[in-house]
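Exam revision sheet. Question 4 asks you to relate a sequence to its structure. Input first:
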Amino acid sequence: MATDWGMSERQAYRYLKEARAVIIEDIDKDRRDVVAEAIATCRMVIREASKAGQYNNVIGAVNALSRLGKLDA
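Answer key, structure tokens:
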């Protein structure tokens, strides 16, 4: 790869390392957004299911919330 782009191998490895760090950071941000949305959904399900007396759904949402918060270990 380095010769294809006219740079030393060492420089190519530096660029790859930097690119990997950027990708990991983006993935972590996306994951946080997905988890936050899932938590909000669980809270809404708990609230609405409680009002409707659908306690099995409340239990399911609480269990999901527990797993999202890594409280089930």
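Marking note for examiners. The chain has a mean pLDDT of 87.
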